[in-house]
Amino acid sequence: MSLFYFIDRLSMFTGKAFAWCILILTLGGSYEVFVRYLLNAPTGWAYDMSYIMYGALFLMAGPYTLSRDGHVRGDVVYRLMPQRVQAAIDLILHILFLLPAVGAMMYQGYLYAQESWGYWEKSIFSPMGVPIYPLKTLVPIAGLILFLQGIAEASRCVRCLRDGYWPERMQDVEELETAILHQEEERRKHGETTPDITQGQEGAKR
Description:
By secondary structure, this protein is mainly alpha-helical.
């Protein structure tokens, strides 16, 4: 499991590191609005900055989202299945679709980046000539990390098939709804009941 957790940590570190792109996007976009509409002096780099930052965030957040099981899935029926059946379905999908597709992404992305570096490709959408070969280099890098995370996810499926339950994931930031559900599960495990808010309100009135 230490190898799987190492891959999870790598995906988590990558995702959180590139999350700073959101701050750069926000500051850059705000600055562009200010100088364009108040000073009538638009920049020549804001558009390039926005799609480069968003592209980098989109690419490098993929492995992190997979490590948190955060990708959208049609789980109306899936969530009602036994965990071993869920693991079998996921394992088949990882092997048949995810890993081959990501392998193609790495291969083609490498050729894509190599060609871009060959002539020091620059943006054609602004007079600034912003370099975009660093962004294209992220395609095979993101593919590699996503491939490793896919192997870790497939290994989780194998462990679930063997043990009958999903192995725990590393603790991380959670949505409020998910945190509340986990608290409710812990209460049920310890035989505690959920506080009845209406009773408390009636007692307060009395």
